[in-house]
């Protein structure tokens, strides 16, 4: 927002049945994210979005994994505009036309975790913000594509970084890769080793094997790579006030290629 099998030479892995169980949890997360986006209109508070997510998760027989996690009060992290991650839902934070909203959500079903995030605009957003979200999504997809048997952990990091650089070239502008934050292992706990950086040299770290699972989550900004944490001890904002985007999927390595475990309904 800790290890499965305690073998530091490989990224923790799951059986085929366990991956199916994680996909069931992940599908609930995807459904909650879609419901939140549908509710995100001008005049709606981020606390109302949180209530939509929690109701969707509980109606599906799951439990919000964020709520109460190290004292976090919400079922989602709602990070608006210059907030990067871990924004606390509030009745006083009301969405307006043109806001850029990042929603991170998790659910537990039968002891297994799903964790996913996406960024979207409220109403019509400026082109720079739309492209920022697109660049972050493309970076995540580049990381997902590198989730192959025999890859090393930092091969994923490097792929995410290359995805960002490719987006910069396509968009004709620079993006900041947020420093110090990244993805993680996930399974019967939400946050597990190893930590997955969003940039770096390839060929390092534990190997990925069939069944290895990672939450891949790049965070990009329209400016700085530097952040600070607000007085609530949760909300991470860009140091220069530039806007940020955050995309995340829980992904497994399979013999047939990467499997996204947090699919969203169409």
TrEMBL record:
Substrate binds at residues 86, 191. A divalent metal cation 1 binds at residues 104, 115, 248. Its EC number is 3.4.11.18. Its cofactor is Co(2+); Zn(2+); Mn(2+); Fe(2+). A divalent metal cation 2 binds at residues 115, 184, 217, 248. GO terms for biological process: proteolysis. GO terms for molecular function: initiator methionyl aminopeptidase activity; metal ion binding; metalloaminopeptidase activity. It holds the Pfam family Peptidase_M24. Residues 21-255 form the Peptidase M24 domain. It catalyses: Release of N-terminal amino acids, preferentially methionine, from peptides and arylamides. One of its GO terms (cellular component) is cytosol. Binds 2 divalent metal cations per subunit. Has a high-affinity and a low affinity metal-binding site. The true nature of the physiological cofactor is under debate. The enzyme is active with cobalt, zinc, manganese or divalent iron ions. Most likely, methionine aminopeptidases function as mononuclear Fe(2+)-metalloproteases under physiological conditions, and the catalytically relevant metal-binding site has been assigned to the histidine-containing high-affinity site. Keywords: Aminopeptidase, Hydrolase, Metal-binding, Protease. Belongs to the peptidase M24A family. Methionine aminopeptidase type 1 subfamily. Monomer. Removes the N-terminal methionine from nascent proteins. The N-terminal methionine is often cleaved when the second residue in the primary sequence is small and uncharged (Met-Ala-, Cys, Gly, Pro, Ser, Thr, or Val). Requires deformylation of the N(alpha)-formylated initiator methionine before it can be hydrolyzed. HAMAP family: MetAP_1. This is Methionine aminopeptidase. The gene is map.
């Amino acid at each position: 927002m800790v290890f499965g099998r305690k073998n530091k030479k490989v990224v923790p892995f799951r059986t085929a049945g366990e991956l199916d169980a994680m996909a069931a949890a992940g599908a609930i997360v995807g459904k909650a994210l879609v419901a939140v986006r549908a509710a995100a209109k001008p005049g709606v508070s981020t606390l109302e979005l949180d209530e939509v997510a929690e109701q969707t998760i509980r109606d599906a027989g799951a439990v919000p994994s964020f709520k109460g996690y190290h004292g976090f009060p919400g079922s989602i992290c709602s990070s608006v505009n210059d907030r990067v991650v871990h924004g606390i839902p509030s009745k006083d934070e009301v969405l307006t036309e043109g806001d850029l909203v990042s929603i991170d959500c998790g659910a537990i079903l039968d002891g297994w975790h799903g964790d996913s995030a996406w960024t979207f605009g409220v109403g019509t957003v400026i082109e720079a913000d739309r492209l920022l979200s697109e660049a972050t999504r493309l970076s995540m997809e580049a990381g997902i594509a590198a989730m192959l048997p025999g890859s090393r952990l930092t091969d994923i990091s490097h792929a995410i970084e290359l995805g960002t650089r490719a987006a910069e070239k396509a968009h004709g502008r620079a993006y900041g890769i947020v420093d110090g934050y990244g993805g993680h292992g996930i399974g019967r706990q939400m946050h597990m080793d190893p930590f997955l950086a969003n940039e770096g040299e390839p060929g390092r770290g534990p190997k990925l094997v069939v069944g290895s699972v990672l939450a891949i989550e790049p965070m990009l900004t329209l400016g700085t790579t530097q952040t600070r944490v607000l007085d609530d001890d949760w909300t991470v904002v860009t140091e220069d006030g530039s806007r940020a985007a955050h995309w995340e999927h829980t992904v497994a390595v399979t013999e047939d290629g990467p499997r996204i475990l947090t699919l969203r309904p169409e």
